[in-house]
Amino acid sequence: xxxxxxxxxxxxxxxxxxxxxxxxxxxxxxxxxxxxxxxxxxxxxxxxxxxxxxxxxxxxxxxxxxxxxxxxxxxxxxxxxxxxxxxxxxxxxxxxxx
Length: 98
Fold this sequence. Notes:
This protein has two helices and two strands, in the order H-E-E-H. The chain has helices at residues 2-5, 76-95; strands at residues 43-52, 59-69.
C-alpha cells in the first residue's frame, strides 16, 4: 500500500476563522466587518457512560448526554437532527477504532 509505505497521515484538522464578519476587529479594537449569514457560532459537549468487558473488548453504551448551544435557532428541527447525526457519527467512529 503506497499510503502506508510512505507513512502519510490519514487525518487532518483545521479551524475556520472568518476575517470579515461583525466579530472581527482591527488592531485598535474597532469593528471592521459587517453582519452576514455566516455569523453562526455553536458550542457543545457530550459524554457517554459505557460498560466494557475487559476480557472480550465488547462495549455497550448505557447512556449519553449531549449539551449544545446554538443561540437563537433558525430551525430547531434541523439543529436537533444535525446534533444527533453528528453524535451518532462520532460514536460509530470511536467505537470501531482499534
